[in-house]
Request: fold
Amino acid sequence: QLQLVESGGGLVQPGGSLTLSCTASESISGIFVMAWYRQAAGKQRELLATATKDGGRSSSDSVKDRFTIFRDNAKNTVYLQMNSLTFEDTDMYYCRAKPPGDYWGQGTQVTVSS
Reply:
């Protein structure tokens, strides 16, 4: 079963940048969509960005000017480059892979604070 491990979260000041990584336990070349989500306590998970196996990429309207997804099938890794971070970006960030199957990572915490 595919396992996803997120990393790269941490504490960052407002206006700063972070790059999150999501590394899979096996090849992702056959996974149609790799995606990043975030979730605050008590709220639904919010889709941030997707990267398809054919090279397509998209970001949600709420973050498209600041967040960019990159997919590296050779490294079994998908990245989320986040710029101009604000307090409102403080959340747990999750990676998802589907189909085939539907897999989630355990998440990595991003805290934006001065």
Remarks:
- The longest strand covers residues 91-98.
- The mean pLDDT is 96.
- The chain has no helices and eleven strands.
- The CA atoms of residues 34 and 45 lie 15 Å apart.
